[in-house]
Amino acid sequence: MFWNNLIITYRNLKNSKWYTFINISGLAIGLASSILLLLYIFNQWNYNQSFQNIDRTYAVIKHYMPPGQEPSTSWSQPNVLGPTLAQEYPEIASFTRHTFNWTTLFTYKETGIKGAGPFVDSAFLEMFDVKLIKKATSDIFEDPNSIIISSEFAKRIFKDEDPLNKIIKRQDQDALKVVGVYEPFTKNSFLAGTDFLLPWKYFEQTTPYIKEANWGNFNYDTYLVLKPNVDYKEFNKKIKYFIDKHSDDAGEETITALFPLSKKYLYGKFVNGKSVGGRIDLIRLLLILTMGILVIACINFMNLSTARSEKRAKEVGIRKSIGASRVSLTRQFLVESILLSFCSCLLAILIVLLVLPYFNRLLSLQLILPFTRPGFWLGLVGLILFTGFLAGSYPAIYLSSFKPIEVLKNRIKKGKNRFSLRQVLVITQFTFAVGLIVCSIIIFNQVNYIKNLPMGYDNKQIIQVDIEGATENDGQAELVKQRILDEGAATSVCITSNNVSRESSSTWGVEWSGMKEDQKLTVFQQVACSDDFVKTFGMQLTAGRDFEKSHKSDSTAVILNDAAVKTMGFQDPIGQTIKWQGENRTVIGVIKNFTLGSPYEQQNPLIVGYRPDWRSLFNIKLPSNLSTSQALSKIEKIFKEVNPAYPFEYRFIDKQFEMKFINETLLGDLVKIFGSLAIIISCLGLFGLAAFSAEQRTKEIGVRKVLGASVNSIVVLLSGNFIKLVIVSNIIGWGLSYWAMHNWLQQFTFKTGIHLWEFAVTGVLSILIAILTVSTQAIRAAWMNPVKSLKSE
């Protein structure tokens, strides 16, 4: 029976090549879109899931809830938190500390290569399944002056040499022995791109203050593995005020807790100390998008199948008259549907292979079709069957319901309802597509609105260069700065402790005149710098002046932003004294708030303190009288003379600023691309319904033409109903998209409005596309010879 159904299906599809082509193409586009989105969703869903004990691995987090301020959550912890927790609580199986990935120069013979990696405790190796390909000792990291490197990094440094027991220099100074080579971490984890691992003992050896218990310095990630059957929620109750217990500076405003590492990536957004989502919100939106595109592709199949109902009617009538049951006919049409779904899936895979490189470029990922995984093929079979049954169910039920007598006498009942099921399906299609287009426009406008908000400083033509090697020495950084200025390669240079394009350093315990009791633990962002801070970044002074070399008193000076002045309650801030980092400092300037942290939120109070010894970055403002390449060439020459072993590397600040919008831009791009595909697929659905309508009204069109109706009047007659469907779709789509975007915009402090023109543009565009789609069938029907349409067999 199955092979008989397959043969009949093949003959029907072969005899209707144009119908088969359109149906397969529509389904293929829908399936290809779904596969691409599912690949991305699967990638994000499995982030950090590859570690062996992921179900028992936790990141330690801190909820800081000071009175009178917005609560905040941080992943960074004191250097002694992990060891102290492990010592006091037997529920902990192991712990490790993890610094951020330091970019470091390593030298072997004459080769100098930069790599990125953290300092970690020895337990890190087991906790995160570090797969050692080679090792020189059974006790890795016993020697503080040891290092393990990834196989990729080993090839870069040693080429074809065996790296084990080789000595390499770190920062052209410390000699380290390579005691292990590990497989690179999967790109789908927070450890991706880790070139090397250094022992925490070495960190303590080179940075002596790390040995001291400092409960007020939150700079290191801490991860724990709990013993089996330990409930982390119950454990959190025990450690809630752990930092308060050990630190005089912290109070009940500081809450310590564990958070599952498996959820950190997707559920890492916290409000008032509670996880409220995060990247999972994007995943949910993309799942809805995936299902929506797949459904509208299936709707196309239904419309195109029922559009051919009269051509298949006699086949159904004859087969029923010779004894075929409705069940067998339904089975036959479902086999057709599944076969079409199979062919569409093959074409969809070809489309995915062709567009995947561009999709990866958009997402900055390396997604692949996992042909070697059995789960992929099972999922593909499931997708084919699901699509086949979903797309073929209604046509199978509809076509198999024809009565033989009525069919053979050409008396098929034609729907007279104002809205048939097919019309409802088309409305559903266009509602989804219209909604996506409106959403993409609003998301695009929101991102542009935030980008164009005043940043408070000029980030154009400013490069950052790391202070490393010789420039770390006292006085050398100032000499390099002066040489750059003397060469005319910059209009100004400022040395800072951290990047002004993101929040990376904060403090509390600041004191000022008139401070209230509940403001003792107010958190301030901080930046330490040399002179010319305001000049280099083009900050906007609202009072006072910049740090200047000529003012020796600036060594005990600070600059505040407007938010800090408001927090401190100063009416006339210039000349006021505050206590910052344990020293009395004089306020010499006030700058407008600038975008240090998230551009979507109110800016936090900031203290900019004159501390050239807290040096991390050169910030160099390139001149306008030289080309960028000329200025960079001069700057590179200076750095090469000072640091000959170090490659000259720089970053433009404006490019880093763009990274703040990556999630919203990605969402907008995906909605825009797949919204456009939804419109294309929906137009195929309209084409199918237009063909169905023209087929049903063939004789009516013939009579009208015989009675003198013009081609234009017939085109308007056939197109009018479809335009009404699109208008209804727009009205529903507008309402749904307004509701969705209104809720989405609530997460932003600064947001653009929802404007009438966004809906109007979408409406006009969708109607024009619908007219072009439908008119092809309408004109074809209007030009048909009435003699043929009125001829009775």
Automatic annotation (TrEMBL):
Residues 20-240, 434-637 form the MacB-like periplasmic core domain. It is a multi-pass membrane protein. GO terms for molecular function: transmembrane transporter activity. The chain crosses the membrane at residues 21-42, 282-304, 333-356, 376-399, 420-444, 673-694, 706-734, 754-774. It holds the Pfam family MacB_PCD. It comes from the Bacteria. Keywords: Cell membrane, Membrane, Transmembrane, Transmembrane helix. It is found in: Cell membrane. The keyword Transmembrane helix applies. GO terms for cellular component: plasma membrane. PANTHER family: ABC-TYPE MACROLIDE FAMILY EXPORT SYSTEM PERMEASE COMPONENT 2 (PTHR30572:SF18), MEMBRANE COMPONENT OF TRANSPORTER-RELATED (PTHR30572). This is ABC transporter permease.
